[in-house]
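Treating backbone geometry as a discrete language has practical consequences that deserve illustration. Part of our work consisted of pairing the sequence of a single chain with a tokenised description of its backbone. We regard such an encoding as a compact summary of how the chain folds. The amino acid sequence and the backbone structure tokens for this protein are reproduced below.
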Amino acid sequence: MNYLDYKHYEDRTVLEVTRNGELIRAVDFKPGNHYVVNPLNKQKKKHLGRYVMLKGIESDEGILSAEVKYLDTNRSGKIILDDLDNIQQ
């Protein structure tokens, strides 16, 4: 089972995902930065592999979601914050 740890700072939010004590993902979220949609649940295929720009973070009933702008269509949308990952170079 995955354990999610959010740390809020003045200008950014950090997400750390661990499974069985091992760090799986660490993402530093700052508005204006670019990320890729890569859900932890591999059955979740919606928006998989799309590149986004983070516009903001909001909380809906205890679940953090991200307001994003999809870079391929320039449309805005919302996505669960856990589904965003750093872009691998």
Notes: The beta strands are 2-8, 13-19, 22-29, 34-37, 51-60, 63-70, 76-80, 84-85. The chain has one domain: 2-85. The chain has a mean pLDDT of 88. The radius of gyration is 13 Å.
